[in-house]
Design a protein that fits this description.
mainly alpha; about 0% strand; about 75% helix; single chain
Length: about 240
Amino acid sequence: MTNNNPTLNDEVFERAQRDAGVASPPMTMAGFLTKTGVLFALLLATAGLGWTMPSGGALIGTLIGGFIVALVVSFVPKTAPYLAPVYALLEGYVVGAISLMFAKQYNGLVPIAILLTLGVFVSMYGLWATNIIRVTSTFVSVVLGATIGIAITYAFTLIGGMWLPGLNALPIYQSGAIGIAFSLFVVVVAALNLALDFQLVQTGIESRAPKYMEWYAGFGLMVTLVWLYISMLRLLGKLRN
């Protein structure tokens, strides 16, 4: 869930353009918005399924399947038109099932998390569009470094927790001051990743990246928003406790 899209950078667009050649139809904003809308429609469809028909086995299966598909799309962007919709379907079930877990434990938490996620998205777009937040090379390095650090932390505790159960009980996962501060940090980093997504979509359009990159960019934005939403749920849950 914390693996964002660090492979969605200028080099990806440049390589895609070289591979596609000048005859390839270019990436457009309208095309990107359309593809992104399709992906979120698919995600919401299966989110309803995860909400109404939760299953532990299905949740584990979709988590593993989504992780594998995400890796393939991240490193082979040409597969995005085919695999990004598959990822949206798998991730939708995960989002729905996890949302149900939080809804059962914390009454009214899910709608608040949804509204806050949308609010952060709109706010970050406004800050980026007005150049209040400038995506410089230093900004990119800091945000991606923090993103990778969070991913490593989660992966270490998840895998290590299989042999050392105490890792899953670290203060960062609890509802104390340290746990709340960590979750707030994760939410901030996820939000800053939205600025990278906006900038990189613009880069793809300006560099006339090939058409399939519309799916790839939509996939990257979807990953960021899902990460932000799940992180928001965790933060709000800790604050309730």
